[in-house]
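Researcher: Re-running this chain for the archive, since the previous output was lost when a drive failed. Same request as before.
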Amino acid sequence: MRLLVPLGLLVAVAVIGPLVAHLLRRRRPEERLFPAARLVPTAPPVARRRAHLEDRTLLLLRAIAILALALLAASPLVRCQRLALDRHGGASVALAIVIDDSMSMRAELPPGARRGGARTRFELAIVAARELAGSLRSGDATTIVLAGAPARVALAATQEASVVRAAIERIAQDGGGDRATDLDAAIALASAAIAELPQPDRRVVLLSDLADGNPAAAPLAELAGVHVEAPIEGLKAPPPQGLGDCALLAATPEGAGDAVRAKLSCTIEAVGQRAIEIVTVDDARLVVGRAAFPPNVPSAPQTFDVLVPVDVAKAGPLTPAAGKPRVHARIVGEKDAIATDDLAPVLGSATAPAIGVVVAEGGALEEIVATGGAPVLERGLGALQAGVPIRPISSVPDRETELAAFAGIAVDDPSGFGPETRMALARWIDAGGVLLLAVGPHAATPPLGSSFEPLLARPLKWERVQGPLGVDPKHAGPLGDGVEPASNLAPLGRAIIDREDESRFVVRAKFGNGAPLLLTRAQGQGELWLVTLPFSPELSDLPVRPSFLALLDAFVARARDRGAGARLTVGDAWTVGPSDAIDARILDERGNPLGEPLTGERSGDGRRVRPGKIGAWLVEVVPKGGSAHRDVRAVAPAPAEVDLRPRPLAPTIATAATSGLSRQTTELGPMLALFLVGLAAIELFARVLRLLFGAHPVEEGARESMPPAT
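Model: Regenerated structure tokens:
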């Protein structure tokens, strides 16, 4: 609080006046006659009761009134914690509020950073957003952007303050999410949303802890034409006692189901008594396995594994049943900054689904023999740097448990598959895998006992081509980013599939003569991709064209979206075909569904569900013309979200006190004036009561002047 006129406090000296007045207005002690006193000899009084102050309550009221009057004369101003828009010349504002709904915002606030009932970073961001919405005026335009990856617009620009407040309440009711943080995209999205608005004052208010997992990255900068402000320093305050965080990324069965491998990411200073427990999901909540953390856990965000032995007699099978997981893995021992990431369902899919590249069969094997290096398919997938592990494998696995480790598998010109491999592949695709087959002369001449059934019902053929054969630019599909119409992709020929099989596929890309180049077919929850050219540079020019990388990039994105079984990272999506239906519901610790299901939304060439919270999910897929299929899947946290260190800001971004939004200054004068009026009313009421129920001052004085009765 500061005072505009500090000398006004001198009025407080006048508080002595009522005290002096009450001291002067004293009465003599009241005398009472005692009949037996006539028998006692008269003697001069030695001591009498001292005179005393009257109406102490009125004296207190008057003293408070004078002190309040002195404070009013000093014109106090209070700097509140409440945010408000600082307008330039009273002009309207184009405002973009960026609310971070990532998992790091679930961290608890230290006591000194709490206000408005907020206990977590996300709750504090909501308090600040409500305050900003409360300061909106007519003519202001506001949009809301959420910074959890992927960044998205929660409310398009509007001039209705009531709509803004309602949107903030919906976000608050959702309780935040567990996504990764994408501050760069959020600021870019917010800036673009207000860049074309007519208001000259355009601002982006960043309500984030800035913990995007990149504390050493380049400072976060604002874009041209838009001013960015980060007014709440408390969002970056470390958790109480400097707590770090540990997150369970995945828990998968090991061996014969007698152990669980837990994958973790931590930022803690000391292990303490932390351990991993495996508990049943039923009402008994039996602990069927326990293992302590390793003694030396890296303090920087880094993943590590803990192998937990399981009592098979108590646990039973570890695979999900009846639409819920059988067991959970949880972190126990000592408290960390975020509690929601300490639990994960035990599921049988890979912790991080990879892309498998077959390198010891078909055209890939011939490439290795000829060049002595990795095949072009493996090198092309690695060059994408798509964030998905690329694993070379000698052959296609013939067991479902081995296939479950892969989101997608790419095979160059295989000569068919054996019976066990074909059945395992079919079930793997049904469960969400994506298979990429590049077919060539080897595929057209399979050995005895090998074929492509049930993926293809008819044999393939290899045909020589007369003249150059390039991609049709009008039907390039995923190859469109790097298509070169004049190029000859098939100098030695191309594969031809039977018309019966072609009718079961969707042609995604065509040659210049109209023949199919890329075909895809949804099968269950997965897909089959078929390329009618091999990937060997000896047989095709496709690998040396930019469209080759565009094709591989589309394949990797599709495999990642499909989920390849039971696990994906929060923010990614499960996808089905455009004619299929999909919905997903999150499960609680007992395996019971919570809230309303997420329904599939059309995206590109399919329907997509993008969960925003970690944990176990019950996913139901209904293929077109088929029966519903339900299974339990898991959404894992992003490892970078355990790093609670903030990213630096560019000097041009205003923070805290330098922000025009930082704090609102409130004048206490009107409130003090109302307080004085109230005091005057109370004093008047007290005097009326005294006149009605007590002795009048004149009557008291008259009684005191009367001689004692004889």
